[in-house]
Amino acid sequence: MKRKFPLYGAVLAGMLYLAPTTASAEDISKHWAYHEMNYLITNDLMKGDEFGNYRPNDAVTRAEFAAFLVRTLNLPASSSQATFSDVKKGDWYYGVIEQASYHGLIKGDEQGKFNPNAHINRQEMAAMLKRALNYQNINTSSSPINFSDNARIAKWAYADVQAVVTSGLLVGKPNNQFAPLAQTTRAEAATVLYRLIHLEAPEIGGKQYTTTNYSYDYSSVVKKQAANNPKVDGAGIFTASDALVSYYVHPKSVMQDSPSFYQFLKLSTVVNNLSAKELNEKVLANKGSLAGMADAFIQAGVDNNVNAIYLLSHALHETANGASALIKGIEVGLDSSGKPVMVTPENRDSLTDIKKTYNTYGIGAIDADANKYGAERAYTNGWFTVQDAIIGGAQFVKDQYISKGQDTLYKMRWNPENPTIHQYATHVMWAVIQAKKIYDIYELIGAHTTTNLVFDIPAYQGQSSAPSLPNASKQYALDPYIAGATGKATTNLNMRTYPNTADATSIMTNLPKDTSFKVLGENGGWFKINVDGQEGWVFDDYVQLENGLQIVNMNIMLNVRSEPSTTAAILGTVKPNGFIIGAVDDNGEFVKNGAWYQVIYNGKTGWVHGDYIVKL
User: Fold this and answer.
1) What is the DSSP string of 390-423?
2) Measured between alpha carbons, how far is 33 from 188 in angstroms, rounded to an integer?
3) Dist CA 533 CA 554 (whole Å)
4) Interval 71-120: pLDDT, tens
């Protein structure tokens, strides 16, 4: 049951004594705490100063935070007098401190002082919040906390910190720190007050919402992620546009409690009372190699303290519902140096200790060749049965992600604490797709009514309002390194609004054979072209480029160098399977220097090694 806290316009009257104002001279719409602050402002809880400023980054004093709690809880007046030696009648905070002391919300130090004008730190705030919960008769459980600075939390505050962190009122700082001595800003205090007002009582089947604030600016995060080769599709073929990345990175792009919202579900908790029989019948039936494997998923969850419903969802997603080659089993053997190598007809006789391997969660299955690298990783990890892959893979996910703080699908995909570093997937929809599967499983077996769900929603600095999902034609990035090349249709060729042959409505026009056009860029084996002022996409299999070079499919970006030498300066890089313009001589032949091809890169002359290109 959700606790209802009375809302009173005087809640923040004691907080710096800011006078009411009808308009703010300060724009807080891009502040990370805008949602929480706006709620308080809308409900007449937060007032601006005489200039209309809310000063979200100003530090809060102990007296001011006491005023928050007293008026939020609507504490009755007290006839007793404040007993602290440094709190005098006439001080603006005398009344609220009198009330807070009488009702047990605050305590003084060994000298009998309250230190009202000292800035409140996070462990002091935790102590006041725990007493506020006690006053409201909200029973709180205390789970172990694993912050990297646990040892810095004072002994007198440790239990209170445990309780308020478990309840979701306070969350950690970046780098898995609690920062017990850090000061609290007005924005942070408003956020905590918002959580207190909306606190979900810890009951079975309840939901709890927390927000973690990150130091990165939202626009810089989108820029970093967009430059990290994100994909439109699960196959890893098409690079996503900045607009599409922006949509999926933004935490507010999904509605609260919607299926997609489950990307914020914390996964570091065992789901109790799961029935293997029910999961096998309702979730895993007809799911190929995963059919009947519910016991393994439940065991993996218990052994690793991980949500087993998430493990099921992850496995179903990565294995295409139990039908992928990686879950059906791929043979791998050892080469002469003892290195695991996927078996092919050509290398079988040269390999030893050949075994069939299984990979449930796509671990190590990079886009360049998912089956090869995923199978070889499985061999290294000893996953020679489906059960091995389920349980062993769960331990890998726990050790490498969940235990390191990436304990939601969103954090695994986008890593808001360190964007682009140590991310699980490239598909922009990876977290959302799995979130929907998790939601569906919870609904299907009724686990949402018997399990407490905790959601951890990220917030970035300068986070604007959520963008709209771009239409299909705006979802694909444009690799410009082939821009300026001349192409010709080798057959009658459909030009489309976006690179997808499955959508008949995307056809703009049909280009007759031998139609010439200018190439604007490339994405996933498609060219964006300009024909008589009209722009669209065509499949490169049906295009002849006059001077185009295609990069081979490999695991790394190809360096473009200033001279035909591996020691020459690097001008930039070209992605695997991408294109670049080759320089040609008067006879139309590519200019070469030994094994090197001369290319045009961003309007400048450069060189790429011939081992990594395919002449078109």
Assistant:
1) HHHHHHHHHHHTGGGT--SHHHHHH-TTSTTSS-
2) 7
3) 35
4) 778 777 765 666 788 989 889 888 888 888 878 888 888 888 999 999 99
